[in-house]
Design goal:
Blueprint: H1 4-18, H2 31-46, E1 60-62, E2 65-67, H3 69-82, E3 85-89, E4 98-102, H4 106-115, H5 118-131, H6 135-143, H7 146-149, H8 165-206, H9 221-232
Antiparallel strand pairs: 1-2, 3-4
Length: 263
């Protein structure tokens, strides 16, 4: 069951975090950015809480990545309530107008920073700093997150925890045991490589010959005919065509897209 208060907190924190950016351009976020940052907050939280999300929202793989209608519907009420700056933008490239929000309040920011789990604020600060309102880069990032990779369009997303601490501890012990052996092998490999390089250098000096005088190429008719012949090997030029590309639904579950250990 979703928690509206927590949804509102993440929306506010995301906008306030963007308000701390030095670049005024990056301080403005749109609805699509805020939705994705709430998703990333849930993702970060779930990795340390046995797959349980912070907001409890049922996320789905929709047109522009992870989507939850109830998060989207909370944006305007939350931001209007605090008096955030709302900019309406029209563009001939898109059918409908779109909006950008900005807001700054150090007291509210610090309050949320102290009340929200560090599992959320740390990762969220990082991604907002990295992507801000760069829609293309942000979408590329969320499309590569684990729940999205393991889902097909229209499916609900499954959040999973990271490996258990015990498994990580076992891996660390095994890594320590291997480190001594690796260092020994690495040292031996470096000594062997140094000897081989020295031998090659001596051989190259022994076989060194005088460099022949550079003769520039002749750009004459024979040269031009040769270029035409090489280009003709590529075949006839490709004609420009337009059409619709249909992708099989099996693509989303293909082995090259999904790592069995990941999902």
């Amino acid at each position: 069951m979703s928690d509206q208060q927590r949804i509102d907190q993440i929306i506010l924190f995301s906008l306030l975090e963007a308000g701390h950016e030095d670049d005024l351009w990056d301080r403005e976020l749109g609805p699509i950015h805020l939705v994705k940052y709430v998703y990333l907050a849930d993702l970060a939280y779930s990795e340390y809480h046995k797959g349980e999300t912070f907001t409890g929202v049922p996320w789905r793989f929709y047109h522009f990545g992870p989507w939850a209608e109830e998060v989207y519907l909370r944006i305007n009420p939350v931001l209007e309530d605090i008096g955030a700056s709302i900019k309406q933008i029209s563009s001939p490239k898109v059918k409908d107008d779109f909006y950008r929000y900005s807001y700054s309040d150090d007291e509210l920011y610090n309050e949320l920073l102290n009340s929200l789990p560090l599992d959320i604020t740390g990762p969220l600060k990082k991604v907002i700093h990295n992507y801000g309102k760069d829609t293309a880069e942000l979408l590329h990032y969320v499309y590569r997150t684990r729940p999205m990779i393991c889902a097909s369009p229209g499916e609900y997303l499954c959040f999973m925890p990271k490996k258990q601490d015990q498994d990580l501890e076992v891996e660390q012990i095994q890594e320590q045991k291997l480190s001594v052996k690796r260092k020994t092998l690495k040292k031996a490999a470096i000594e062997t490589l140094k000897k081989e390089m020295a031998d090659r250098f001596k051989q190259a000096l022994a076989q060194k010959k005088e460099i022949p005088e550079f003769i520039p190429p002749r750009y004459d008719d024979i040269y031009n005919e040769g270029i035409k012949w090489v280009e003709s090997l590529a075949g006839d030029p490709i004609n420009k065509e337009e059409g619709t590309l249909e992708v099989s639904p099996d693509f989303w579950k293909a082995n090259f897209r999904i790592n069995d250990e990941l999902c």
